[in-house]
């Protein structure tokens, strides 16, 4: 019977703690401090909001850094892609010129006297 009373008292304490946390969630989210009564009966200020912000700060900074790095890589890829397109266009133009000059050079070689040594 004493055991049941202890368990019942423990369950009521846990429920009251849960209700207290649920009631103070808006304050925590806004970064406010929430009064909390520790086991010894003295009140202290909980800085859970501050602790959560500190825990989130480093990963957030790392994510921002990764986003910036990905943006730089995207710009580099765009720049390299544009350069490659220009190079291909120049190669095509050069190839066309070579193809146009080939028959001219071939005709010139055919019309040379056969006595000229190469």
Secondary structure elements and pairings:
Layout: H1 2-29, E1 34-36, E2 44-46, H2 48-110
Antiparallel strand pairs: 1-2
Shape category: rod-shaped
How many independent structural domains? Answer: 1
Widest beta sheet: strand line-up? 1-2
The first-to-last residue Cα distance is 119 Å
Largest sheet: 2 strands, antiparallel
Mean pLDDT over the residues: 75
Number of strands: 2
* Poorly predicted sequence stretches spanning 5 or more consecutive residues: 1-10, 41-45
Rg over alpha carbons: 40 Å
Helix content: over 70%
Secondary structure tally, helices: 2
Description:
The structure is a single chain. With 118 residues, the protein is mostly helical. It has one domain. It is 77% helix and 5% strand. The protein is built from 2 helices and 2 strands, in the order αββα. It has a two-stranded antiparallel sheet with strand order 1-2. The longest helix has 63 residues, at 48-110. The chain is rod-shaped, with a radius of gyration of 40 Å. The N and C termini lie far apart (119 Å). 0% of the residues are buried. The model is unreliable at 1-10 and 41-45 (pLDDT under 50).
Search tags:
118 residues; mainly alpha; two-stranded antiparallel ribbon; 77% helix; rod-shaped; disordered N terminus
Quick structural overview:
The chain has 118 residues and is mainly alpha-helical. The protein contains 2 helices and 2 strands, in the order αββα. Helices cover 77% and strands 5% of the residues.
């Amino acid at each position: 019977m004493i055991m049941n009373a202890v368990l019942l008292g423990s369950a009521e304490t846990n429920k009251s703690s849960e209700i207290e946390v649920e009631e103070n969630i808006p304050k925590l989210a806004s970064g406010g401090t929430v009064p909390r009564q520790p086991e010894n009966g003295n009140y202290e200020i909980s800085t859970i909001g501050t602790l959560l912000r500190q825990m989130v700060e480093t990963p957030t900074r790392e994510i921002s850094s990764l986003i910036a790095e990905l943006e730089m890589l995207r710009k580099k890829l765009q720049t390299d892609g544009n350069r490659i397109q220009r190079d291909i266009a120049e190669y095509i133009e050069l190839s066309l010129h070579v193809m146009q000059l080939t028959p001219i050079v071939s005709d010139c070689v055919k019309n040379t006297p056969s006595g000229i040594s190469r």
